[in-house]
């Protein structure tokens, strides 16, 4: 069974987001070994956004496993079907572990983006990282459903 990791900066404080993420994480258990790892969110006044992202990136780098995809606004956009196809391609190609990285309020460090196998964007819009964690978890679940031919996607 493939292992899917989400490495995310910060904690989800909103109960409604946490409940949604937990629901999709539970549903994913039939398709994969799904884990979420939270790293420290930096709140250092006086530092630039790039410096904060760099500090947060240092906490993320040791957590990267398998094929790594960073979520970044400048990344490639996929339809749900194309995202499912990419996931299937990786798994069928032997990827036993895939890690998705969600940065904090200031995005991801350039070093982290360079280390990723690919950058993925869901929109040109900016989302709170806790909301985006829910959206990403749902889209991973949707991708597995599309690939399994279940009626969820419709």
Structure report:
- The protein is an alpha/beta fold.
- It is 42% helix and 23% strand.
- The protein has 5 helices and 5 strands, in the order βαβαβαβαβα.
- β3 (67-77), α3 (80-92) and β4 (97-102) form a beta-alpha-beta unit.
- α1 runs parallel beside α5 (129-148) and α3 (80-92) crosses α5 (129-148).
Question: Between the first and last Cα atoms, what is the distance in angstroms?
Answer: 25 Å
Return the string of H and E elements. Answer: EHEHEHEHEH
Strand order, biggest sheet?
Answer: 2-1-4-3-5
In total, how many beta strands? 5
Largest sheet: 5 strands, parallel
Helicity level: 40-55%
The rough form would be described as globular
Number of helical stretches of at least 4 residues: 5
The rounded Rg comes to 15 Å
In short:
By secondary structure, the protein is an alpha/beta fold. It is built from five helices and five strands; from the N terminus they run E-H-E-H-E-H-E-H-E-H.
Element layout with pairings:
Layout: E1 3-9, H1 15-28, E2 33-39, H2 49-60, E3 67-77, H3 80-92, E4 97-102, H4 110-115, E5 118-121, H5 129-148
């Amino acid at each position: 069974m493939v292992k899917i990791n989400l490495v995310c900066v910060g904690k989800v404080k909103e109960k409604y987001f946490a409940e949604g993420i937990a629901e999709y994480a539970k549903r994913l258990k039939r398709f994969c070994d799904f884990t979420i790892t939270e790293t420290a969110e930096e709140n250092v006044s006086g530092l630039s956004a790039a410096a904060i992202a760099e500090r947060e990136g240092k906490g993320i780098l040791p957590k990267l496993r398998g094929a790594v995809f960073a979520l970044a606004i400048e990344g490639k956009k996929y339809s749900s079907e194309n995202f499912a196809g990419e996931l299937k391609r990786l798994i069928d190609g032997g990827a036993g572990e895939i890690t998705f990285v969600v940065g904090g309020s200031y995005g991801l460090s350039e070093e982290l983006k360079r280390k990723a196998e690919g950058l993925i964007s869901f929109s040109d819009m900016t989302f709170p990282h806790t909301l985006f964690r829910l959206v990403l978890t749902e889209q991973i679940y949707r991708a597995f459903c599309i690939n399994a031919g279940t009626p969820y996607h419709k």
